[in-house]
Amino acid sequence: MGICSHGYSMEKVEALLRLLALCALALAAVLMSTDRQTTMFLGVIAKKATFHCAKIFVLSVYLYTIGAGYTLAQLVRCLYLNKLSHQMVVYVIFAVTCASMQIALFALTGEEDFQWMKLCNNYRRFCFQLGGSLVCGLLAFFFLVLISGISTFNLFRWYSPNFLCLKPKRIAVVANPNS
User: Which one of 10, 26, 49, 141 is at 20 to 30 Å from 161 when CA atoms are compared?
Assistant: First the structure.
């Protein structure tokens, strides 16, 4: 079935993308919220790194969880009600993932102007798990962008049945026998 057939396959693709986005968001939230590592300095001082170290990571966990809940609700809606969805979640997930990536970059490289040391030299497992969470957040964003495209396509096809069709459907004109 092609893009212009508007068949049942488009609904399956949307449901699959929503399921993938849900899994990626849930995994991102779990990876970030369970990320912690303790390192001993000088054999006496224990320093602990958790997602609570930066408020953006805490916000990321909350928003990934809210995004996963919203995506689950939209998945149920997609499977049973078949109405159009909203794009706000796409923008929120993208914004929080970008902000988290910026702070993660500071953890990786440090920032001399702010006198922030490199955390990833001492907390390698913490940084790897944080990176995995951010990759999951980006995957969820891309899945949500694809879903948004499908929703936009479905919206515009209501106004133009030939929207994005390379070969528009031809309407047969029947000659009036009375003329």
Answer: 141
Q: Which is it for the CA torsion 151, 156, 158, 162, positive or negative?
A: negative
Residues of the chain with pLDDT under 50: 1-6, 83-84
Q: What is the 3-state secondary structure (H, E, C) of the chain?
A: CCCCCCCHHHHHHHHHHHHHHHHHHHHHHHHHHCCEEEEEECCCEEEEEEHHHCHHHHHHHHHHHHHHHHHHHHHHHHHHCCCCCCCHHHHHHHHHHHHHHHHHHHHHHCEHHHCECCCCCCCHHHHHHHHHHHHHHHHHHHHHHHHHHHHHHHHHHHHCCCCCCCCCCCCCCCCCCCC
Residue type, 157: R
Q: What are phi and psi of 50, to 5 degrees?
A: -135, 175
| pLDDT at 3 (0 to 100) | 40
Q: Where do the structural domains in the chain lie, given as residue ranges?
A: 9-36+47-165
Which residue reads 């499977």 in tokens?
Answer: 79
∠ CA 100-17-29, nearest 5°, is: 30
